[in-house]
Amino acid sequence: MTTDLLATSSDTWRDRAGDPPVVPPELDPPGRVGLRERNRALWQRHDLRRQRAEDVYAASRNPVRGWPVSGNRAVLAFFGDLVRTRKRSFALLVLLNALAAGSALVIPRLLGSLVNRVDDAGAAAAGLDTLALAVVGVVILQSIFTFGAQWTSTHFGQDLLASAREHVVSTILRLPVGRVEGASTGDLVTRVTRDVGTMARSVQWGVPRLLISLMTVLLSIVAMMLNSLVLAVPALVVFALCTPAVRTYLRRAPKAYITEGATYSRINTTLTETVEGSRTVEALGLSQARVQAGSDDIAVSAQAERYGMTLRNVLFAALNGAFQVPQVVTLVAGAYGYSQGWVDLGQITAALLYVVALAEPLDAVIGEVDRLQVGAASTSRLLGIAEVPPDREPGDRLPDGVELVADDLRFSYREGHDVLHGVDLRLRTGERLAVVGPSGSGKSTLGRLLSGINRPRTGSARVGGVDLVDLPLEVLRTEVALVTQEHHVFIGTVRDNVVLAREDSPDDAVREALAAVGGLAWVERLPEGLDTMIGSGRFFLTPAQAQQVALARLIIADPHTLVLDEATSLIDPRTARTLEGSMNNLLEGRTVVAIAHRLHTAHDADRIAVVIDGRIVELGSHEELLDLDGEYADLWHAWTS
Ligand SMILES: Nc1ncnc2c1ncn2[C@@H]1O[C@H](COP(=O)(O)OP(=O)(O)OP(=O)(O)O)[C@@H](O)[C@H]1O
Where in this chain does the record put each ABC transmembrane type-1 domain (predicted)? Predict the structure, then answer.
């Protein structure tokens, strides 16, 4: 039997998809031909969606195309660790649940004795009161234990959940920037939103409820056997007959739920792309195509969900039967056993009550196992993030000096396609170096390598003799920092946004940094000055203001080397010149690499590196390069003419 994603347990989906429904000729009047064609088209579409769901699953398991998904072992080890570190509360949880379940199981036995007393006409009146009182007493005890068990379970679940969330956040924060940028945004967003939520629900509710239900089932079985082995066997045999259905479900469910998660990632990726590229979509009239792409993703996702639902339905149908049959079997076995004198009426009553009472926890076990399967699939996707290989292993060595030296840098975004071809560069401490060159020549890539964002394929970029990518991130950022055209404003006050790298900075330092980039005047005009809330949905900053906040943030971070990747491009030329002018004072004493389109930046720089096709072809001052009459001179004449 295949475990094909969209085949049901009997493979009917695949068969049906391959062979459109056959209508016998005598029932096929001319009017039905259209219907048959429509059915055929429907099955073909279904087949296509099934194939695409398979592709989504395959892509989600391919570490080159998608982010990793952990295996079952990693998920079990993760939950095992969470539980192991909470041994005491886990033990209390088990004890209270055992007491609650155990006391519940005494009740059928007491009721059985009550029936025997009533049956035994002579002694009827004598023991009835005591037995009835005992039942009431046990019910009260059971309520107390149940309350305690629920309370402990909730706290245990919440504690587990908090740790799980912390784990996810810290894992994501340690991801290399290069890897995050290379990932599909939709996938990452889906993992940290939907998957965290699903994992959270299964950890908080699924784990404790499964424990409670499992314990109740196990103790019920023990109680049934203690009550009467003869009456317990038929029910146990029926339950045992259900194991193939459960095993089939358990074998197939992980794939189904991982595929569901991957299809949600697809939906989010398409949606994010559409929103991020909305201008292009509008300009090229792509709305209809984007809507269609979204609909296709949803159709594939619905197909994956249908498969999961079919698995659940088949399982629940099998188990529902299994819950009803034991009651009849126990009654028949009881009647026969009673006629043979093997069991008394009390035992039959107790056995029937146990079987009836067993249905609920068994149902809960199956329900929670399903919930945990969904949670486990989400957890494997979340733990998969931790399997993203780090692009650096920080060492212990700290830089001895501030000189930045690049040696034979080669780098490729795609294997076999280098965009830098052996760049050598020795920065002079405190100099302003402008990097110029045609679009796509590799200027930004060089900037990323010089600021330690990416690891070169070969060669090295070292500061004070230590490879940038061998430095811990917090050390790296105080050595060299990259400021790009993207300036994210985080939700928070202006102050919060400026002091990100050094949270204990005093307000005077914040104002000084803002003043240095020409941003203090508008900040002071804000309703609450430094305390004004900015960021998504709050006070709106113009791109130029956002850029000033970002630059002020860098001044507070205080690295000795700055790589400015067209940092002033979003500001109009006059403001840009002002900003650069005010920055000049502050940048004094720092080494600055300015990657620029506008050649006036180059004109002001101490040296200029001209990058063409991933190589530095000219390096020198403005005057030297003009005298050279090469690439730079051409660019300069074109710019000034
Ligand atoms: N994330 C990426 N994935 C794949 N290729 C990339 C990526 N970023 C840049 N490239 C390619 O690498 C080459 C160098 O790009 P880079 O951005 O470094 O050039 P640039 O000189 O800064 O260009 P521009 O001035 O237009 O920003 C280009 O061919 C570009 O298409």
Answer: 91-373
Q: Indicate the domain borders of the chain.
A: 1-51, 72-385, 404-640
Whether 611 and 441 have beta carbons less than 8 Å apart is answered as: yes
**Ligand 1 pocket test, candidate residues 441, 450, 453, 569, most atoms within 8 A of CB:** 441
Which residues of the chain are under the pLDDT cut of 70? 1-35, 39, 41-46, 49, 53, 56-66, 119-128, 176-179, 181-185, 204, 208, 485-486, 567-586, 597, 601
CATH no. of 72-385:
1.20.1560.10
The ligand 1 atom nearest the CA atom of 447? 18
- The CATH H-level (homologous superfamily) assignment of domain 404-640 is P-loop containing nucleotide triphosphate hydrolases (3.40.50.300)
CB count in 10 Å sphere of residue 441: 20
Best residue among 445, 565, 595, 612 to mutate for probing ligand 1's pocket (most ligand atoms within 8 Å of CB) is 445
For residue 440 and ligand 1, the question of a CB distance below 6 A is answered with: yes
- DSSP assignment letter at 614: T
In angstroms, the CA 534 to CA 494 distance is: 6
What's the pLDDT tens digit per position in 307-334? 888 888 888 887 777 777 888 888 888 8
User: What ipTM was estimated for this complex?
Assistant: 0.96
Gap from CA of 615 to ligand 1 centroid (Å) = 13
